[in-house]
Structures are given as C-alpha cells and as structure tokens.
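Hi team, as promised in this morning's meeting, here are the two structures we talked about. I've kept the exact order from the run log so nobody has to guess. The first one is mostly here for context; it's the second one we should focus on when we meet again. Sequence first, then the predicted structure tokens.
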Amino acid sequence: MGKGQIKLKEKTAIILGATGLTGGFLLQMLLNDERYIKIRLFSRSSIGFSHPKLEEHLVDLLNLESYKTNFLADEVFCCIGTTKAKTPDTEMYRKIDFGIPVSAAKISRINGIETFMVISSMGANSKSGVSYNRIKGEMEEAVLKCGIPNTYILQPSLIGGKREEKRIGEWLAKQFMKVLNFVLVGPLEKYRSIDPEVIAGSMVWLANNNYDSVRIQSDEIKRIYESHSNTSETD
C-alpha cells in the first residue's frame, strides 16, 4: 500500500449524488472535516438544509457541461447511480450511469481538478454480457481515458443501509446477504455487502493520501476504512 501525504489546506470538494445513501454519509464527513472549507453540490434536488460550507447548484445533471464554469474544486466525488428497476429505459439508464460520471471527469480534466473519485460496481466489465456490468465497465474506461492524475474507482459489492425510497428487490438481497456474509471468508470476502459509511470514509481517506491502486474492490475499501477510520488527518 503506497502512501504519502498530499495534505492540502482549505480545500474545496464537489459531490455529485449527495442526496443518495453513500453521498449523504460523504457529505456529513466532509462538513465535519476541517481540511475542507467549501463543499459544492451538483444535484437535481436540494438536500434540505444549509451549512456555512455548503454551496448548492440545482442543475440538470444530464447536461453537466452547461455548468462547467462553476465546476471548480480540488476533488470531485461522484456517487451517482441508478438501477434497472428505478430506470427501466435503457437509454436513460446509460445517460445516468455512464453519461454523468464521464461528463464530470471530462470537465474535471478541463478545469485542472487533480483528484476524481467515482463509485462503480463489483463485476464492472466493458465486455460483459450483463448490461449493468458492461455499462459500469465502459464508464470506468472512459473516466480513465480523461487522464486525471489521482483517479480512484471504487467497486463495492451490494451496498447496505436503509434508503428512503423502497426497492423491494434490493431489500430482499440485503436480507439474504446479512446471512451470507458470515460464510464469505478469505478470497470470498470481497463479495460481502458493504455499508455506505465505509465507502464514504474510504473516499475521504483516498482523497487525502496517495494510493497505488486505481480500481479498488469491496474488501480493499473495507480495509482502508478500518485502518484509518480513527484518524482525521493523513498518515
């Protein structure tokens, strides 16, 4: 694990998807982190509260290029994602899961943002016969082509936690995984479900430290969080 300080003072971060489960945890962590003086949110709807550090931009995320003059920060955290159940239209699904992260990465590159983090998924593969995995894999490749110096792609397994919206299939899967987690050990540990707080905490640490891996799988995300969750500063 290659680590080194890139500790920046008075940083600004951009979050895409702060109204989501993982994005919500990430937002609270950054608001409580004194290294960050401004958090810019780009989303379709308001998070519903104010804070001295917050700067909300209510925008059409499918047309992110129109807002590139305000897309300025030290780091970008992309927590955008949908499901087939929530977005059954294939074209719209691709616009969200592929289009938004890739547009954000391209703007980040143009604007000189040097750290870009995106939540993908375990199983992401541009050659996959499964459309969900294929789109995620294509997104990863397109993001990497942008050449942002510090790019990290997190590939979590099923994300736990309670959502405000009801996703019956996902809820059933989570109940099943709660039982299955006990037998997923050793090389199978990466298939265990993972809490959104763990993903968010790992993202904050990665943003403030050098790390050798670009694609980071679920078990590795957990190890990062467990190793550094009690430290507020870089190692």
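And here is the second protein, the one for discussion:
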Amino acid sequence: MTKAQEIWIGAYASKNEVGITRVEFLPETGEIFKTAEYGSIENASFLRLNREGSRLYAVSETDKYADPDGDVVEGGQLASFPIDAETRKLGPGQYHPTHGAHPCHLSLTPSEDWIAVSNYSGASVMMYPILPDTRPGPPVIRFRHTGSGPNASRQEAPHPHSVFFSPDGQYLYVLDLGMDKIMIYTRGPEANEWSAYDAVSLDAGAGPRHLAFHPSGKFLFVLNELSCTVTSFSYEGAGKLGRLGSVPTLPSSFVGDNTCAEIAVSPDGRFVYASNRGHDSIAIIAIDQQTGGLQPTGHVSTRGKTPRNFSLTPDGRWLIAANQDSNNVVLFRIDQQTGFPVFSGTELSINKPVCVLIK
C-alpha cells in the first residue's frame, strides 16, 4: 500500500484558534483526513518544510504582536517548529520578528542555508541564515523597496508579495505587487553577502503576486493578481529574464471583481494552473514546452469561495484547493490527458484555509 502523503494547511486564525492543521492523504483511495491541529500562531498564511521534513517554517501575517514580556511590537513574525520524526507532531515554536507588517510569503534556498520573508505592508524583505540545527538565526539582511503603481487603492506603496530563489540558489526573485516589478537580488562570495542585481517590469497595474518555474528550467511564469493574467518569461541564465507574453486567467464572458492568488506548473511541464478569487476557479493554461508560449484551455470551479491557495501532489495526479471564505479544502483528481482537475467528491472543513503544503 502506498504510504500516506503528509499535508500541512495554514489558516487565518487568532492564537486561540486552529492556525495549522496536519492532514494525511492516501492517493490510492483518494482519502484525506485530519491528524492534528495546532494553535499558538496567528495568521499562518504561508508554510514551508525543510527537505528532510524535520522543521516547519511559517509566517505570522500580522501588523503587531505581543512579545514574551507582553509588550506590543509592530510587524509580524517568522515562526519555526521542530517536527518529531516518529509522531510527526509539532514541537514548541521559535519566533523571530520580520521587522515589517504582514509577512505573507517565505522561501528556502535549495541548499537550505537561507530563508527569505516578504513583508507585504512593510515594503521590505528579510533574510535569515539557517543554523546547523535547522532553526533560523536572527535576520541579518533587509532589502527595502520604494515605488508605487497606477492602482491607487492597491499600489500606493511597495508591496513585496512573494520571494522565490532560483533553482541554483544564486538569485532571489521578489514579486512586488505595488511596484509592478520583479526585484532580483544575487548572492555574493562572502557568507552574508546578498545585493541588488536587476529589476524586471510588468505591465502597469498588473500587480505581480507569485511565480512558478517550469521543470525544464527554461521558463518561469508570473501570476498577476490585479490584471488577472499570467506572464511567461524565458530564463536566460545568470538570473536574467526575457519576457515572452501574457494570457488572461478569466473567461472573456466573466463580469465582476476578481483577483488572482496562486500559480503552479504541472510536474510534466504541460500546464500552468492559476486560481481566481471572484470567479472562484482554477484556470488551466497549456504550455508550449519549446517556446514557453501559453494557451488558456478552460476553468474548473474550486467548489468554494476565494481560493487563495492550492497545491499539486509531486506526481501531478491530484490538486488540493483551499477556499478561504467558504472554509473548505477540496480534493481534485487531475485528468492526465487534458490536465483538467476533476472533483473527487472529497473535501475537508477547515476554518479560513489559506495555504496548502504537500510534503
């Protein structure tokens, strides 16, 4: 029998509510069930695991918090939890300030020696060295952004929305929704040396949010939250990007408000998936694997409201979507010919789920 896959789900929650849920998934049968629930962290809006699965990292997306002495501190926190190898239970958390409000995304270098955190309302990115025992050390690098965009309500200031390291770990890509830019930083030869390297502009008002690399390493795809588009880039080496084109995530017939949230590429490199909040769907977009060109092929309802996040299983056969405003996590089987997610008949009730992390 196939071993159960481990899934961690983060949620918007107070410290007195469930912020992180551990779930197990049996891909042979399509069964999915909760195994543990944890509080003590506020608004665990994005999660990462280290490679060996011994530590869970999370951002606490707040604009202020109470420190151990009870004093109120401005900003959010980076949390990390040891995971017991046998029971898979979380141990006590360790917390670091992010020195900026509403941290909403984090990434580890492939070599797992650095973790980066984006402060959405703090106009900054913080970088923490990873200690030998896998805990983050105190932050030692801060990148500050300046600028704005044409959308007065959403782009009045910089809003670093996500951080992604290149596959070789030499470059950090920061998608800034407020500036309509991808800010690129590069690693230097010294231990704590990272510096500004390049900037790539998106269309005015696009609002870049997240990106996904193609498994070939030749392309990457940027999801634009405000314009509801996906922009493809060639990955030209030395951290450089070449813009190829953009396609919409919405059907032409849709009328109403919508923002995009998450993007993923199928492990076989044939499809891009993107979530629509408003249309409440997953867009399926075919990839030309020779040119990186994109072709929208359809949409599937997430069977809930506001799909902020979703993830694919490593084999590309299943998709799990988190519907923030209908409090449900929904399991889809991926049709291996068409790439379309098909509702499996299974869902879990989880309050305000906003991140799905599949080990």
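Starting points for discussion:
DSSP finds no helices and 30 strands in the chain.
The mean pLDDT is 97.
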